[in-house]
Write a structure and sequence with these properties.
There is one protein chain. By secondary structure, this protein is α/β, with parallel strands linked by helices. It has a single domain, classed as Alpha/Beta hydrolase fold, catalytic domain (Rossmann fold). Helices cover 48% and strands 15% of the residues. It has a 7-stranded mixed β-sheet with strand order 1-3-2-4-5-6-7, with helices on both faces. Helix 6 (123-138) packs antiparallel against helix 7. The radius of gyration is 17 Å and the shape is globular. 37% of the residues are buried.
Length: 240
C-alpha cells in the first residue's frame, strides 16, 4: 500500500485487471492538490482471495489511524470495492464505481476458453494476446501506450491469480449506507449495457455520469474530465 497524506479525508483506489499500484497515481495527486489524502493498492502476485485482500487493506489503514474512507474501484477493482462495502460497511464514507459490474457470470462464460488454456500458455503469448486486445479496441487513442505498459507490468502469475480471485465469486450485494457514484462510458465494449443496468439496480447510485468516449479506461483517455467529476463527487460527500 502507498499512502499519501493530503488532508483529513482519504480515497482508496482499487485498480482493474490490467492495472498496477501506479494506475491511479494521477488521480491521487490531483485530489491531494485539493486537500484530500489517497491510498494506492495492488493485488498480491500469488494466489489470493478478495476477502483476504480486503482484510489486509483494512488492517493497514486502521494501523495508521484511518477508520473511515471513500473507495474508488474500476472494473475488477469495482467488483472488489463492492465486496469491500459489504464486508466493512460501517467504514465506508462513499463508493465510486467506474466501468464495473456486480456479477461475474457474463465474464465467466465469455472467457471460458482463454481461462482454461491460460495456465498452459507462455507468459509472452499471454501478454501478446492482451496487447492485441488493447490495440484492437484502443489503438486510436494517443495514450494507448499506457495500456501496453500496464500489460508489460503483469506476469503470468499475476494474470492467473487475478482470474482465480475474480471467478471465485459470482455476485455481490451490499447494504447502502453511504453516497454511491456510478461512472461509465458510452463506448465501453468491455461492459455491455445489461451489466451497466444491473449494477445501477444493485448500487442505487446517488450520482451517475457517462463519458461520451474513453471506453473501459476513461481515467486514462479522458483524464481531466474524469478527475473533475471525481473531485466534484468527493467534495460533495465531505462538504468541502
Amino acid at each position: 500500500m502507498r499512502l499519501v497524506d493530503g488532508g483529513s479525508h482519504l480515497v482508496l483506489f482499487i485498480h482493474g485487471f490490467f492495472g498496477n499500484i501506479e494506475t491511479f497515481r494521477d488521480q491521487g495527486e490531483f485530489l491531494k492538490k485539493h486537500g484530500i489524502s489517497y491510498a494506492l493498492v495492488t493485488y498480491p502476485h500469488d494466489d489470493f482471495t478478495f476477502e483476504d485482500f480486503i482484510d489486509c487493506i483494512v488492517e493497514k489503514l486502521v494501523d495508521r489511524g484511518i477508520n473511515r474512507f471513500s473507495i474508488l474501484g474500476t472494473s475488477m477493482g469495482g467488483f472488489c470495492a463492492q465486496l469491500f462495502a459489504a464486508r466493512y460497511n460501517s467504514r465506508i464514507d462513499s463508493l465510486i464505481l467506474t466501468n464495473t459490474f456486480s456479477s461475474t457470470t457474463y465474464f465467466r462464460r465469455k472467457n471460458r476458453l482463454i481461462t482454461a488454456i491460460a495456465p498452459f500458455l507462455p507468459e509472452g503469448l499471454i501478454k501478446f494476446y492482451l496487447k492485441n486486445v488493447a490495440k484492437k479496441e484502443y489503438g486510436g487513442y494517443e495514450d494507448v501506450w499506457k495500456l501496453y505498459r500496464m500489460v508489460d507490468s503483469l506476469t503470468k502469475k499475476d494474470v492467473l491469480a487475478r482470474v482465480k480471485a475474480l471467478t471465485a465469486i459470482e455476485s455481490v450485494n451490499f447494504e447502502k449506507r453511504f453516497p454511491v457514484a456510478v461512472l461509465d462510458s458510452a463506448d465501453d465494449v468491455t461492459i455491455p449495457d445489461f451489466l451497466k443496468s444491473e449494477l445501477k439496480f444493485v448500487a442505487r447510485p446517488d450520482f451517475e455520469y457517462t463519458f461520451p468516449s474513453g471506453g473501459h479506461f476513461p481515467y486514462i483517455f479522458r483524464k481531466q474530465e474524469f478527475n473533475q467529476i471525481l473531485l466534484q463527487f468527493i467534495e460533495d460527500v465531505y462538504a468541502l
